[in-house]
Write a structure and sequence with these properties.
Length: about 400
């Protein structure tokens, strides 16, 4: 794969708005998780809720897209001058040469949940103001971002559960290499909803406490929400961080459980290294998928240990942000960009005692890493949809 430059990037999550807020929270090993008080949900769990989403007002011209997911997307686009950087790219390349590639899992399903409360008591019809196509539909967020910038290039939404917004980096990089586009807005947006919270609880995957990735006593996830974006351009564009490689696999082992030895995960990591033209020894930090469920962390640990041994510092930042599902890949890509820019390996907020059965160099506390040049980020979704991304410093 030809390298692609991250000429701009931003993130909004329960840790705050923008790169600076996330960098500071990671330095402080701070978690943004709070007890669940979302909407009408009554569950004993903690969540990563973004403050102020309900107060976001979309521009009148975009009001047809109004839902929590697109309000979160709009909030995220306003951070770090990102919207301005996109407009500069449009001026350089033209609206028809800038693509949109966004990942999400549930998109605006909350809008449908709310609409069902207003069904006609006789016919069961949903209210006339409910617009499925521009709110709940998984393409809604990509259509929204495309409309917000007046873009005319190719656009897609990718929904492969928790690998969604990692896989869009690979998809966009392929189109840049093919020459169908010159730049792309990539990222992920996933927002809290009743389906997600009750769904994961029904699978007995949520923890009653803040999640503890990789911990010996880990007992489940904390669901979060986020909007994270990057502007990808060709590798010769000046940038502090570049996407160097992407590896994907689909092991189809089970609908919701990972392969017990993490074989699909290992294949994705191997493919990402081949794509980047790097070796195991080159990677200086791995951002683990690290959901804090017993099965996921054990399987990923086996996969990483089989490939890297204990030679690479690893951590999971989901103890800080919660598992943001379809947005996790993009959010953790920004975490890797922060790690490279600051030459610092993040820790694992929430983790107390690393599980000795996970035979990797698991870092609870963050630490300075002056020689950090290359990072790898893992994102693994239900059904065995796996993606690993390799990022490097701009001058690496």
């Amino acid at each position: 794969m030809q390298a692609a430059s991250l000429t701009a990037y931003t993130a909004t999550s329960c840790l705050g708005r923008g790169v600076a807020a996330h960098a500071q929270a990671l330095r402080d090993s701070r978690s943004g998780l709070t007890p669940c008080r979302f909407e009408t949900v009554d569950l004993p769990t903690w969540i990563g809720e973004v403050a102020g989403v309900d107060e976001v007002v979309l521009p009148d011209a975009l009001s047809g897209f109004d839902c929590r997911n697109n309000r979160l997307a709009w909030l995220g686009l306003q951070q770090d001058g990102f919207a301005g950087r996109v407009r500069e790219a449009i001026a350089r390349h033209g609206a028809g040469r800038v693509g949109v590639f966004l990942g999400t899992s549930t998109s605006g399903v909350l809008q449908t949940e709310l609409a069902y409360r207003e069904r006609d008591p006789v016919t069961g019809a949903l209210p006339a103001h409910f617009l499925y196509d521009s709110t709940h539909n998984v393409y809604s967020v990509s259509a929204f971002v495309r409309a917000a910038f007046g873009l005319q290039g190719m656009a897609m939404s990718l929904s492969s559960a928790c690998s969604s917004s990692a896989k869009v980096f690979a998809a966009a990089a392929r189109q840049l290499q093919l020459g169908t586009i010159d730049a792309a807005v990539v990222g992920g947006v996933d927002s809290l909803c009743l389906t997600t919270l009750y769904g994961f609880a029904s699978l007995q995957l949520t923890s009653p406490e803040p999640c503890r990735p990789g911990d010996a006593r880990r007992d489940g996830i904390s669901v979060g929400e986020a909007a994270a974006f990057a502007l990808l351009e060709r590798g010769d564009a000046p940038a502090d961080v570049r996407l160097l490689g992407a590896g994907e696999s689909s092991d189809a082992h089970h609908m919701s459980a990972p392969h017990p030895q993490g074989l699909g995960a290992q294949r994705a990591m191997e493919a990402s290294l081949r794509s980047a033209g790097l070796s195991v020894a080159d990677i200086g930090y791995i951002n683990l998928h690290g959901t804090a469920t017993p099965a996921n962390d054990a399987a990923e640990g086996q996969a990483v240990a089989a490939l890297f041994g204990r030679g690479v510092p690893c951590s999971s930042t989901k103890g800080a942000t919660g598992h943001t599902l379809g947005a996790a890949g993009a959010l953790e890509a920004v975490v890797c960009a922060i790690a490279l820019s600051e030459a610092r390996v993040p820790g694992s907020p929430g983790t107390q005692t690393p599980d000795p059965a996970i035979a990797v160099d698991y870092r609870v506390q963050g630490a300075s890493a002056p020689g950090l040049q290359y990072t790898l980020s893992n994102s693994f979704g239900f059904g065995g949809s796996n993606c690993s991304l390799v990022f490097g410093k701009g001058d690496a």
